[in-house]
Amino acid sequence: MVSPQHEAMHRLFQHDPGTFARAFRTLGLPFPDPHEVVLLSTDLTEPAPIERRADTVLRIGSSHGPFLLLVEAQRREDKDKPAAWAYYLAYLHSKYDLPIVLLVVCQDQPTAMWAEGPLHIGMPLWPSLAVRPLVLGPHNVPRITDLATAASDIPLTALSAITHAKEPDVGEILKTFAAALRDIGEVAEHNIFAELTELALGRNSKATQLWRKLMSIDLSFFRSETSNLLREQGRVESRAEDVLLVLDERGIEVLDELRTEISTCTDVQKLKTWLRRAVTASSADDLFT
Fold it and tell me: ω before 118 within 30° of 0 (cis)?
């Protein structure tokens, strides 16, 4: 319940905002005197829905009692993140009344060093709030290149590959990871870690190309949609190469534009047709006739 005492304690500053600076100046904190004051609405309710979505929130039970784990993936320094993380922490703590830990996962050391903070909200002289995430990144996640270690903990090996994705030695981690998966054989729950690793490596990075090559050696133990697509992609690329090989062997000139069209085609039936025509074609244009 709001009381007159409560109201008086804060309304004083509405009538003389400079009181704030003068009071703290006597304590050795030199806040500047205000030169402009605007009274804002005290209603902090959001009038329209605003999407605020964390990456992952887990309720974890432990021998020390339950707690919440808020996991955020961060790829670069972002000045807006400290305020967003502070909001997430306050909201979740208020909603669930449980201790909460913020974990930030990074893929490069500068971002990890920034995320470790503490990230202050407020004035440099006296921050009102400090956000202190736990951070996992290439600076503290072990580089798993030992086969036995990798096989004993597939999720941790995936995390090692993900956090070191931009590091020069990520190739050794990926080779160890792939070898561990092959040695273990098909285990359904391991598939997701292999696929998450590919997603985390990025679309066109050298690490992604290496990972796909390693997986193409023996994909028989992967049964998911993503792996099936990889196998199908391999078959399509092989058929396109066959078309060009037949034309080249028969001495038929293929202009760069047509060569690109053939090599980038993903229609299996069309490639089959072109392959049959390549056997008897007198020119590359005959494939499209």
Answer: yes
Closest CA to 111 of 66, 147, 165: 165
> Can you tell me which residue has the tokens 């400090």?
130
Q: What is the pLDDT of residues 24-60, one digit of tens each?
A: 777 787 777 777 777 767 666 666 666 678 888 888 8
For the cut 80, the answer to whether the pLDDT of residue 141 exceeds it is yes
Helix (H, G, I), strand (E, B) or coil at 95: helix
Q: Which two tokens stand for residue 31?
A: 């806040």
Bond from prior residue into 49 cis (ω within 30 degrees of 0): no
pLDDT digits (tens, 9 = 90+) for 228-276: 555 566 566 677 888 888 888 888 888 888 888 888 888 878 888 888 8
Q: What's the confidence (pLDDT) of residue 123?
A: 86
Residues in the chain: 289
Whose tokens are 């000139």? That residue is 253
Tokens representing 92 are: 């979740």
Show Cβ contacts of residue 101 under 8 Å, excluding neighbours closer than 6 positions.
67, 68, 69, 70, 134
**Following CA atoms 84, 90, 91, 94 in sequence, which dihedral angle do they give, to the nearest 10 degrees?**
180
pTM given for the model = 0.66
Using alpha carbons only, what angle is made at residue 113 by residues 110 and 119, rounded to the nearest 5 degrees? Answer: 125
How do the domains of the chain map onto residue ranges? 1-45, 56-136, 147-223, 231-288
Q: Which two tokens stand for residue 133?
A: 């995430």
Place of tokens 């190309």: 209
Asked if pLDDT for residue 218 goes beyond 60, the answer is no
| Neighbouring residues of 14: CB distance < 8 A, sequence distance ≥ 6 | 39
3-state secondary structure 156-213: HHHHHHHHCCCCCCHHHHHHHHHHHHHHHCCCHHHHHHHHHHHHHHCCCCHHHHHHHH
